[in-house]
Recover the amino acids of this structure.
């Protein structure tokens, strides 16, 4: 009888101990808020199809990162030796973003840009968003390194944002990455009102000259010359720019089809899964739910607005110097923000609203891919000055 | 053909020499004598509990450098006075890190213990493993007890007596201001950053614009024509419309795509025979099957 009493105490104690290990015993309101955010991401990805390739891994990562556990079991992403910590290494050391750029390079067709190289300048103008956000971040009291890491959200390029924040402000990387990807998903919502506000009907109806055909030699030369020129000017952008142009050369050379297929297929898919999941998991409530994160989200929105405004206004300014017939439709100014290809799609959709036969997609892809180059160059500059 | 081969070989050889030279510059030549304490009365104690003069070597590179096999000497006439043994983990200096040697003239106490002592007014040099190439050297003038003589900043060019002795640590002991903090102090509102960075971004993309605006012209120059005697040529008739626009190309591509996709095997009860190509693979070949008797 005594034995059975002891046994019941033993079972009771161990059940209690087991309960103390469960997430039910450790969960806080912060964890629940983050789990709700993760679920919203997953909902937006599935129901609204907003950037599902990114929002599903990130959303699920947020769920994974916010399961409340007892520290010391080598489970958390910040615990040395845990599986998630090993996977997170690729984010912390900036391994994943260049690999994603390799895939982007292998997917991107720079023909639109080569056929009309002046569109590159729109990609440059849109980078005002980065430096506008940098100035506002300094005013809000962020340190220069933090301000630089936050400002890159305006480049609208997730891998670039992760790469730069891992170097300048690793502690803010989760919030920066989530903010960057969220606003990239919201490009179709953020950009159209600004585009309509800054243009008149006559400007929206501008028809651009059809792009000329681009020879294979030009396509092969572009990644080689592009890499040499940009990295000679900003060597700190080498990991991103080097891989972007390398991927493009694999595609355009025509003799490395298998490598290009791997870069733009399985490789980028694997890295996207890893980067999405680990960045999502890095948003543990304890590190993520801070006043700084709120500031980062506000600055992210501001940087997108500034970038879009700068792109559209720059086209209008540029048109002052262009002859009739060569003018650029300012509705492609927004696509200098490098959210490829979403911002170019926005140009197309808004253009069609005013003229059903005016297709701007091909023209918008020029500044769109120039924006990728521009944001990588801008990241290199910030890294050079602030690290 | 042979000449071309010779040229190609020469170019590869030259490239290899250049690469090898570069690799050399990235390793042993990045080591520096960083800090020296000659008179050690009440300073750093070695693992044997003794106080002796010590030498700090700093690896300025961002890669690991092995000091094993190199030489330390206090006698310029004898550059190979102390040979640093190879293969010990101590000799492998991590990026931007240090290794200490004790000048106690007791080499039997371990590889960090040298076979000479430092003297006021003497000198100290580090030689490459060939015993001829000097990597770094320092002339030791009059010394102060327990005050080390070293580079004011790790790997820097300026030498002097240091405020604090820092064996195996950063020579600069003041407050370290990061590049970001320096930039922020000079540019508190971010205007400078915006001006500089936007100028660079525009410059980079304008450069690309200029190059690609002219690329087609450059590579379409016929150099043979440029340097050969002008010949009277009968001008070939140009095709109507000098350039085919991308839209025309897209239309042609679409038409071809539709045409190719329209070729299918079964159409409205009419059968067409289409040859199916199979790629040969030795893995599935019976010729190479395991039932074959091995020869």
């Amino acid at each position: 009888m005594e034995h059975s009493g002891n046994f019941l105490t033993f079972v009771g104690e161990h059940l209690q101990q087991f309960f103390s290990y469960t997430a039910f015993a450790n969960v806080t309101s912060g964890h629940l808020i983050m789990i709700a955010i993760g679920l919203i991401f997953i909902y937006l990805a599935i129901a609204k199809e907003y950037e599902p390739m990114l929002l599903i891994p990130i959303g699920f990562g947020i769920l994974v990162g916010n399961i409340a556990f007892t520290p010391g079991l080598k489970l958390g992403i910040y615990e040395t030796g845990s599986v998630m910590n090993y996977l997170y290494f690729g984010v912390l050391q900036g391994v994943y973003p260049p690999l994603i750029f390799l895939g982007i390079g292998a997917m991107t067709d720079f023909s639109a840009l080569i056929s009309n190289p002046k569109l590159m300048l729109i990609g440059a103008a849109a980078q005002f968003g980065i430096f506008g956000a940098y100035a506002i971040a300094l005013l809000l009291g962020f340190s220069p390194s933090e301000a630089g890491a936050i400002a890159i959200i305006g480049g609208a390029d997730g891998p670039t944002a992760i790469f730069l924040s891992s170097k300048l402000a690793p502690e803010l990387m989760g919030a920066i990455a989530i903010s960057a990807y969220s606003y990239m998903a919201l490009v179709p919502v953020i950009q159209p009102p600004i585009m309509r506000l800054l243009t008149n009907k006559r400007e929206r109806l501008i028809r651009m000259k059809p792009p000329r055909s681009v020879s294979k030699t030009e396509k092969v030369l572009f990644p080689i010359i592009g890499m040499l020129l940009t990295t000679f000017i900003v060597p700190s952008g080498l990991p991103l720019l080097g891989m972007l142009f390398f991927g493009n050369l694999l595609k355009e050379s025509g003799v490395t089809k298998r490598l290009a297929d791997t870069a733009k297929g399985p490789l980028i898919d694997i890295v996207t899964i890893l980067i999405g999941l680990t960045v999502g998991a890095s948003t543990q409530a304890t590190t993520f739910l801070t006043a700084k994160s709120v500031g980062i989200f506000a600055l992210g929105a501001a940087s997108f607005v500034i970038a879009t405004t700068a792109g559209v206004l720059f086209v209008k300014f540029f048109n002052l110097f262009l002859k009739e017939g060569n003018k650029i439709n300012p509705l492609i100014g927004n696509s200098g923000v490098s959210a490829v290809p979403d911002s170019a799609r926005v140009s197309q959709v808004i253009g069609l609203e005013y003229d059903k036969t005016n297709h701007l997609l091909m023209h918008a892809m020029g500044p769109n891919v120039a924006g990728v180059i521009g944001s990588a160059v801008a990241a290199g500059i910030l890294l050079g000055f602030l690290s | 053909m042979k000449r071309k081969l010779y040229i190609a070989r020469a170019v590869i050889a030259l490239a290899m020499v250049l690469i090898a030279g570069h690799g050399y510059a990235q390793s042993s030549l990045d080591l520096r004598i960083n800090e020296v304490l000659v008179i050690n009365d009440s300073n750093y104690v070695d693992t044997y509990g003794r106080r002796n003069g010590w030498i700090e070597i700093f690896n300025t590179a961002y890669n690991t450098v092995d000091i094993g096999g190199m030489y330390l000497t206090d006698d310029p006439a004898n550059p190979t006075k102390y040979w640093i043994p190879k293969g010990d983990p101590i000799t492998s200096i991590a990026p931007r890190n240090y290794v200490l040697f004790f000048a106690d003239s007791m080499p039997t106490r371990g590889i960090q213990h040298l076979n000479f002592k430092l003297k006021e007014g003497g000198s100290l040099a580090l030689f490459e493993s060939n015993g001829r190439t000097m990597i770094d050297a320092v002339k030791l003038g009059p010394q102060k007890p327990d005050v080390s003589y070293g580079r004011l900043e790790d790997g820097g060019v300026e030498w002097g007596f240091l405020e604090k002795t820092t064996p195996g640590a950063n020579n600069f002991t003041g407050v370290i201001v990061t590049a970001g903090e320096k930039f922020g102090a000079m540019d508190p509102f971010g205007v400078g950053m915006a001006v500089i960075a936007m100028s660079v971004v525009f410059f980079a993309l304008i450069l690309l614009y200029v190059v690609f605006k002219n690329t087609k012209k450059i590579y379409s120059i016929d150099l043979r024509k440029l340097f050969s005697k002008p010949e009277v040529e009968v001008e070939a008739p140009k095709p109507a419309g000098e350039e085919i626009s991308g839209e025309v190309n897209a239309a042609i591509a679409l038409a071809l795509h539709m045409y190719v996709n329209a070729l299918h095997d079964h159409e409205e009860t009419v059968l067409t025979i289409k040859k199916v190509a199979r790629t040969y693979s030795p893995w599935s070949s019976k010729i190479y099957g395991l039932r074959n008797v091995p020869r």
About this structure: Chain A has one domain: 93-386. Residues 93-386 of chain A form one domain. Residues 174 and 279 of chain A are 6 Å apart (CA to CA).
